[in-house]
Amino acid sequence: MPHRQPDLDLSPHVSDEVRRTTCYMCACRCGINVHMKEGADGEKKVAYIEGNRDHPINKGVLCAKGSAGIMQHNSPARLRAPLKRTGPRGSGEFEEIGWDEALSLAAEWLAPLRADAPEKLAFFTGRDQSQSFTSYWAQNFGTPNYAAHGGFCSVNMAAAGIYTMGGAFWEFGSPDWEHTKLFMLFGVAEDHDSNPIKMGIGRIKARGARVIGVNPIRSGYNAVADDWVGITPGTDGLFILALVHELMRTGRIDLEYLARYTNAPVLVNGDPKSPEHGLFLRDGEGKPQVIDRNTGKLAAFDAKGVRPDLHSAHRAAGVTHRPVMHLMAERYLDPQYAPEAVAERCGITARKIKAIAAELARVAFDEAITLEREWTDFRGETHKTMTGRPVSFHAMRGISAHSNGFQTCRALHVLQILLGSVEVPGGMRFKPPYPKPAHIHPRPHSNTAPGKPLDGPHLGYPMGPEDLCLRPDGSPARIDKAFTWENPLSAHGLMHMVISNAHAGDPYKIDTLMLYMANMAWNSSMNTAGVMRMLTDTDENGDYVIPRIIYSDAYSSEMVAYADLVLPDTTYLERYDCISLLDRPISEPNGAADAIRWPVVAPDRDVRGFQSVLCDLGARLGLPGFTNEDGSQRYSDYADYITRHERKPGIGPLAGWRMGETGLTHGRGAPNEAQLDSYIKNGGFCVQHIPDEAQYFKPWNMGYQDWAVKIGIFDAPQPYLFELYSEPLRRFQLAAEGHGERQPPDNLRERIKATMEPLPIWYAPLEDGHVDEAEYPVHALTQRPMAMYHSWGSQNAWLRQIHGHNPLYLPTRLFERHGFADGDWARVTSAHGEITVPVAHMAALNPHTVWTWNAIGKRKGAWALGKDAPEATKGFLLNHLIHELLPPKGDGLRWSNSDPITGQAAWFDLRVKIEKVPAPAEAHPVMGAQASPVGEGPTQLAWKVGR
């Protein structure tokens, strides 16, 4: 009897229709094709999600997170209607109410604040794509207390990049994947920019380029690196400066690049008695001065035909002015930065450091590449070719989330610049609207007035003490103490300090805390248990210390239980979003790009997109940006705002398909009522390509500068020099030395002088000086897994199968010393607290470091998970071991556990000790179960799509 093959449909009908939009499962913002099928009820439902091959970010590639978006959209944890608290905070006891009641209640709470004291509202948002919009709303309300997640994520990287070279990595820039020959990563886990990096590494490895990974943990990208450098946490800056030392010692730096495009030749006042000591010599127009090699005389840095001299000094009126290059040579050729001097602390041999420096130099200079593209620079010189150093870098939270992170990130940027590998073929390239120098960004504003908008943008880049957000008595104007002497350059705010400061009434009490997509009662807070106590703490009258909490989320997260009023958001497939050039665009180095999300399906619950809710609430409160002259609502919803709002004439949230004088245009133009339809038709995005002759040397290339003006990035060309030496930092140092009208408090003078050095330095993480290193000898880190991004991932029925719980990974020496076997349990103790967790062995790990995946652990009752879910019994957070404050010094002051320059949360400074203990029934600490407004999800999650 012949064998009969089974009847299989080898080409099943996937969908009836494909709707193209933008993924929201991580911050890559990849393009996706959402396949729809019509069900028995005649309604189309999501059947399948794949990558969009035409999209500029992912070109069809989609990761596990993106594919699992279908499970996110159908999650049992989705909130179903507005909620008003009925039980105690934290209990999760609510009643469902209608939207009119919810918005009336919110307006009832907020209107008196706006009328009398707008700063009594603190409005902070998590990782989303509408920060320019939420900032605009808060500014119209009049509160200075607004920021987003960057202060506890990566502000050190972003701010250091802006102050040094006008941009950084990820959303600011990326490697020139087409030409780079050596790619070096620092502190990059699997979550950031994952698809583009995976695609890029694949491209460069295919043609034989090498990858060097610097990270205490060898996972993800570092696992596929040709060379892994398992550095000791917190010492990256020291390692980088040792590389700088070697490159300068051997003369392997790009002197021509430094002279033309950086402030290395700019003259610095060298008189210690002068109130301008350490500042640049400037002409009558305020332009920094250099010595022109052609004439030997002073000249403005950007004068036509000038060839700046790196060597010559200038003496006038008894004061010697030396070029920045002299100061750099003095600092970095010092033996303290020699490989032999730093090797033990970094956990890298001197021989290894020298070998890496030599490899960087060899590729940069011996394998330089030249493109036949003519371009003209800002001094009027025309160049026939573009020569590049094919070495590129990428770095993120791993070097950013330390209390020395700002200077470490600055050091990395300086390393790139010394090699001449920024904005050149083969190097790191900026993505429009970057590069933008710090001085053209807004300054932070904090002046409030009853019933009035704030006097300017909340966030910005201070150029000196005059830009700090201080009250007349010198106290902080903001609840998070951003832009104060404690952390002067806090460009993204300090989200991790909001609840702690509000609870302490330091610098003042607030009335209402409004949060969006910020799980501050769990994995988005240091000192998790302490924060939960602060959210529920009452005063002597029995009233909550933080009187009101309004929260918006799409899911029943841990934070929902602590809200007094919950405004349920939609999923990302049910709303409009704007991924804007005004905010966090999806550009690539060859073009400016923005994108939208749109409702590919309608919600089946009584939920609304939070941005549309703000349009309604803004009108109810009479906010000027959200009402017409007659008091009526200006924008019917967020889609209407995206279409009609203009930040200034001709510039709106989206740059594509605007109305020009002769028809549709991209960049500048009047609003177009059909703009969103054009985006939807084009796959949800718009790309404006940069001309070939303008794609490199962007800060100095007049072709790029003119193109940027044309599309609305600049109002006028903005060429500038890279800031190896940061004059704004020196201005704060001068104040600490006693110069100027605005002076720091005495207790901060020495810290400002020590940390705010204008040339990058390294100092030990602050926790090292506050805890006993002998008692707590082990470094403890968290990383985001590639299969999950934020805490919402482990409610996902598909992704939970990859990461249902998380062990603490121990290196071989620690694992064997304590007699562990995989599956044993350990008590992990810090100066702040302790946890008891399962352990596992990992050989490819720095010998002084332990680590785990972040945000896997969940609280019982949250996310519609079962009470015995592994995420709640074996999953855990290191957050319980980390405090938002450093241990007390005995001076009665509260010292934030942050970078003293930017306020970046120092998540990765944590030091612990470890001991083996008998296995408990579940991970400690054990938190009581929350009641859930959505109940517990089914054991099996399945449904049929289609007829």
Can you characterise this structure?
The strands form eleven sheets. The protein has a seven-stranded mixed β-sheet with strand order 5-4-25-24-23-6-7, covered by helices on one side. Strands 32-34-33-36-31-35 form a six-stranded mixed β-sheet. The chain has a four-stranded parallel β-sheet with strand order 11-10-9-21. The longest helix is centred in the N-terminal third of the chain and has 18 residues, at 99-116. Helix 7 packs antiparallel against helix 10, helix 7 (236-249) packs across helix 11 (350-366) and helix 20 runs antiparallel to helix 21 (746-755). It has 947 residues and is α/β, with parallel strands linked by helices. The chain contains 23 helices and 36 strands. Keywords: 4Fe-4S, Iron, Iron-sulfur, Metal-binding, Oxidoreductase.
Beta-strand segment tally: 36
Compute the average pLDDT.
Answer: 95
Q: N- to C-terminal separation?
A: 37 Å
Major β-sheet strand ordering: 5-4-25-24-23-6-7
Shape: globular
The fraction of residues in strands falls at 15-25%
Helix content: 10-25%
Largest sheet: 7 strands, mixed
Name the quaternary structure.
single chain
- Low-pLDDT parts are none
Q: Write down the Rg.
A: 27 Å
The total of helices stands at 23
Q: What is the structural class?
A: alpha/beta
Region (Disordered): 438-458
Subcellular location: Cell envelope
Protein name: Molybdopterin oxidoreductase family protein
Main location: other
